[in-house]
Design brief:
This protein has one helix spanning about 65-75, and strands spanning about 1-5, 10-15, 20, 25, 40-45, 45-50, 80-85, 95, 105, 110-115, 140-145, 150, 160-170, 180-185, 190-195, 200-210, 215-225, 235-240, 245-250, 260, 275, 280, 285, 290-300. The strands form 5 sheets. Strands 7, 10, 11, 13, 18, 19, 20 and 24 form an 8-stranded antiparallel sheet that branches. An 8-stranded antiparallel sheet has the order 8-9-12-21-14-15-16-17, with no helix packed on it. Helix content is about 5%, strand content about 40%.
């Protein structure tokens, strides 16, 4: 929240989360001789209207704050909660880059390692032709039947702003049905999921309106043809910005009006972050057949300019 008085125009302005609220009003400034107060106002001979709750990052400027500064002052820098590079796994567990919550691989999930350079197929006919990994030296391969990976518990608070990114390549050119690459569950259903729907030729972001089986859903999408096991896959990202009540699906760094929707309130999540499957009815389904790499999760909304930095083996600069 930011209050601004412009002596040149004689108007007072109020901004919430970087956006103007209401209309500017005429005001007359008076000279102040007392101390700057936080959490109370002076009334008569005493103080009243004491604030109950948390306050932080209080700043005072002796000048007008310009629009670009208003936006930047309102921004909460996203916090990285997990980055799984999926380069390797030990005893069925693939580590988080900084020692955080790991991903546990289920049956039908394995780590594929690209060529190690020990031999060159062009020069040695006995050298095996090993496909390169999606990013860096390894990626997660899922069999489309039971293969998945999951954390032990929730990673994201999906009721607040969040961002999650992933690199994915579908194994089939004509998948037989919808396949989910990312999901995180509430008590009764997924609070969000990202899947490929071959009937729509599209990547979809699906968010239910309530934590209930069969609840009405918001669906946004981008049309993309299935990979068929070739190429470098696609970089997908989901951004929920609670400040502006918007949820967005990015494909290869871009979103559009079909991939953006209003979301007044995200559902709280209680289940693990799932890679390669979704909640369906009373169990699991929509298993993904393909390759997954570079899963990144942030609490907070990354900006448009940050999204292209996801999925490259490092974390984007959130400057």
């Amino acid at each position: 929240m930011l209050g601004l008085y412009d002596a040149e125009t004689g108007q007072a302005h109020l901004y919430v989360n970087g956006h103007a609220v209401g209309e500017p009003v005429r005001a007359t400034a008076t000279e102040s001789a007392g101390a700057f107060q936080i959490g109370r106002i002076r009334h008569g001979g005493g103080y009243r209207q004491h604030w109950q709750g948390a306050l932080g990052d209080v700043r005072v400027h002796d000048r007008v704050v310009v629009p670009g500064e208003v936006t930047e002052l309102a921004r909460r820098k996203p916090a990285l909660l997990g980055h799984w590079s999926l380069e390797d796994a030990s005893d069925g567990v693939s580590p988080e880059q900084k020692g955080g919550t790991p991903l546990r691989l289920g049956t039908g999930a394995s780590i594929h390692r690209g060529p190690d350079g020990s031999c060159l197929p062009d020069l040695d006919p006995d050298c095996p032709d090993v496909p390169y990994a999606l990013v860096d030296d390894g990626h997660l391969h899922l069999d489309g039947k039971s293969g998945h990976a999951a954390t032990e518990g929730p990673v994201l608070d999906t009721s607040d702003s969040f961002t999650v990114g992933v690199v994915v390549r579908l194994a089939d050119r004509k998948p037989s049905g919808p396949m989910t690459v990312l999901s995180q569950a509430g008590e009764h259903t997924d609070t969000f999921k990202v899947r490929y729907d071959p009937s729509k030729y599209a990547w979809q972001l699906i968010v239910p309106h309530e934590d209930a089986v069969g609840a009405k859903e918001t669906v946004v999408s981008q049309i993309v043809m299935a990979n068929g096991g070739r190429g470098v896959g696609h970089r997908l990202a989901v951004v929920y910005d609670d400040a502006i009540d918007r949820i967005m699906l990015y494909v290869d760094g871009y979103t559009n009006s079909d991939a953006t929707a209003e979301l007044a309130a995200g559902l709280p999540s209680s289940g693990p972050l799932q890679i390669g499957r979704a909640t369906t009815g009373d169990g699991w389904g929509e298993y993904l057949h393909g390759d997954v790499d570079e899963v990144q999760a942030y609490q907070g909304a990354l900006r448009d300019k940050d999204i292209p930095g996801l999925g490259h083996g490092t974390d984007p600069c959130l400057c």
